[in-house]
Write a structure and sequence with these properties.
The chain is of the alpha/beta class. 26% of the residues lie in helices and 20% in strands. The chain contains eight helices and 15 strands. The longest helix is centred in the middle third of the chain and has 19 residues.
């Protein structure tokens, strides 16, 4: 049977397989494209069968691909042979693939810890890390212990621009998820019913753990990067992606001239006073440089200090 996989990922249980990126063994006539294969230990891809690794116009991204892109179309000039077989990606991507914002759907799910409903659309000018997981998955537990909890606690627990959300896709109960959070020292939200709500399907999740970095810029939501499986280099890769996404968040430049000046502080002050600009959610989010989800004279003062070069936003 022929299957077509857009953003396909396999191999989440066997530790050897998870070190290979996408693994296809004894499987033929499949089509795979728009996947990011980044720094897997042995091979970024592995295929012992006969499969198509591109859509005939675009393939996958491989961090070990060394080809050129002389015409700048985003497709490598030379093919990428898939190790361990005869399959070839004839259209390898030279940069990680990122879906358009239209493919980054909103969701509203209950947090098992706070019992509040959390919607992705509530976040503006923030980087949101989505951790699709189950409580029974050993590699999800290892990712929580080795990567997510240390990364969150060390760098992002007090970062107003970054949000961590775990999403359970196995319909565990509130009590089970609360016990899981306590066991693994998780102090960020664990959202419930990621499978039955359709969120896992909307995001193309085909295995756990899968991590998705979403850039919420104003009202626009874009998948910045994603990877599946347990990655021993996960802390470094995730921090690099998060910091890269943060650079795209507008902070303080309210008149979009590329620099922060006293004019931006004046706009922030007008927003704080309830002026017309306060009706623009993108401008409002960009003016909230303090990250407290409101715009006050404090934000205007911080923008003025940034314009003078005394602080960095």
């Amino acid at each position: 049977m022929k299957q077509k996989w857009d953003r396909f990922s396999v191999g989440y249980i066997h530790p050897f397989i998870t070190l290979l990126g996408i693994y296809l063994g004894y499987s033929n006539n499949n089509t795979l494209y728009h996947n990011n294969h980044i720094n897997n230990t042995y091979h970024n891809a592995y295929d012992t069968g006969t499969n198509q690794w591109d859509s005939s116009s675009a393939g996958n991204y491989y961090s070990d691909y060394n080809g050129t892109d002389q015409d700048g179309d985003g497709i490598g000039d030379t093919p990428y042979p898939i190790p361990c077989g005869s399959s070839i990606d004839y259209f390898p991507l030279v940069q990680p693939w990122t879906p358009s914002s239209a493919t980054t759907p909103n969701f509203c799910l209950e947090d098992a810890l706070s019992r509040e409903t959390i919607c992705l659309s509530n976040y503006s000018n923030k980087v949101v890390l989505l951790d699709f997981m189950t409580i029974w998955c050993p590699w999800c537990q290892k990712e929580a212990d080795d990567i997510l909890v240390p990364l969150h606690n060390q760098y992002y627990a007090n970062d107003s621009k970054v949000v961590f959300l775990s999403i359970d896709i196995d319909d565990s109960t509130t009590q089970q998820l609360q016990a899981y959070a306590k066991q693994h020292n998780i102090n960020f939200s664990i959202l419930m019913r990621g499978r039955t709500s359709g969120v896992a399907e909307d995001y193309g999740i085909r295995g756990v753990p899968t991590t998705v970095i979403v850039l919420c810029k104003g009202t626009e939501r874009t998948i910045y990067n994603t990877y599946a499986g347990y990655n021993p280099d996960g802390p470094n890769a995730l921090r690099e992606w998060i910091e890269g996404a943060k650079k795209s968040i507008p902070t303080g430049d309210l008149n979009s001239d590329g620099i922060i000046t006293p004019a931006d502080a004046a706009i922030a002050l007008a927003i704080a006073a309830g002026g017309s600009a306060s009706c623009d959610p993108t401008a409002f989010a960009a003016a909230d440089v303090s990250g407290d989800d409101r715009v006050t004279s404090l934000d205007a003062l911080m923008i003025l200090q940034a314009a003078a070069g005394t602080i960095e936003l």
